[in-house]
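Review form for a predicted model. The reviewer records the input and the model, then writes brief findings.
Reviewer: anonymous (R2)
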Amino acid sequence: MNDVTPSAGPGPLSGLRVLDLATLFAGPLAATMLGDFGAEVIKVEHPLRPDPSRGHGPDKDGVGLWWKLLGRNKRAITLDLSTPAGGRTLLRLAATADVIVENFRPGTLERWNLGWDELSAANPRLVLTRVTGFGQVGPYARRPGFGTLAEAMSGFAAITGEPDGPPTLPPFGLADSIAGLATAYAVMTALAARDRTGHGQVVDMAIIEPILTVLGPHPLWYDQLGFVQPRTGNRSTNNAPRNTYRAADGSWLAVSTSAQSVAERVMRLVGRPELIDEPWFATGAGRAAHADELDAAVGAWIARHDRTMVIDTFEKAEAAVAPVNDVRDVMDDPQYAALGTIAEVEDPELGTLRMQNVLFRLSRTPGAIRWAGRPHGADTDEVLAELGLSPAEIGDLRAAGAL
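Model under review:
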């Protein structure tokens, strides 16, 4: 396991200022990704209603653990944008920023006189990134939207689960997370355009769209062939064997044979080389049509051996296998350890924390976790003082309920 220390030099996004006005979870995750590589991220929360991620999931000593991850590398301030004083303060912050990330329902910022017209007037180079469930236009635009709805609406749930079971939703924020990564990419694309044109613009990110993209060619298949993919459990309609199999010690392993050569190696390994000569074995679709026979062969062999033996034998045969890890296994996995995927972060509230490291490695300008999520409003006075507000002005804002 690799400890995380700030990189020797500034991150590649150093000098970029991001205002994170968003909550739960796609928008804030995008801002986290930018902060991990050096952007200065200022998290703006309501004085009385902080980001709900602070209270999501388990806590330790009353401190939400999810927030420690999602809020890392962010300075935390409070500001009630619905008040005139809060709105004026946001416009002052926007004049110093490169990016704003927000996920209010369409029309909310406009109602507070903080829409694109006002923000771009304050800073023509600003990139306003709007992350909502359904986008800024269309019949659903004003509906409340969450990742769960995107997982259902995109077609993901329809193809997930056992053939005779109900559509299945993931037990974590899949659509939100995909949209968060896509949003970070969208922000960098808009900033690249700004470097050429000198002008900012609006990014419209609908959470229902990125998850549809990662589902692959489903719309194309339907358009050209009328094909609607059914639920197939752990199996694939494109190749076999592809499933999870239980070893002699009770552990589970996943096998994939997307490549023809790997499928052949697996069948030789499990002692069924004669299946390779069957005409149907020559294509992925042909093998998928005979998944029962192939699963039986692979499953029977794995059931006779323990997890370590299975993995070692597959590795020697250059066949694809992986253990089905739970989080305990992930924390001890030697490959994750070699990559430094789990990082240690020192936190003044909770001590040493272990969490996912930055998303990728750069050889010359690496990212870093500089700190975990900060307490609600911890940096308000400092950030506003840097903006030029005097202690008396900050006090007035607090007295007015804007902070």
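Findings: The first strand starts at residue 17 and ends at 20.
Further findings: DSSP finds 17 helices and 13 strands in the chain.
Recommendation: see findings above.
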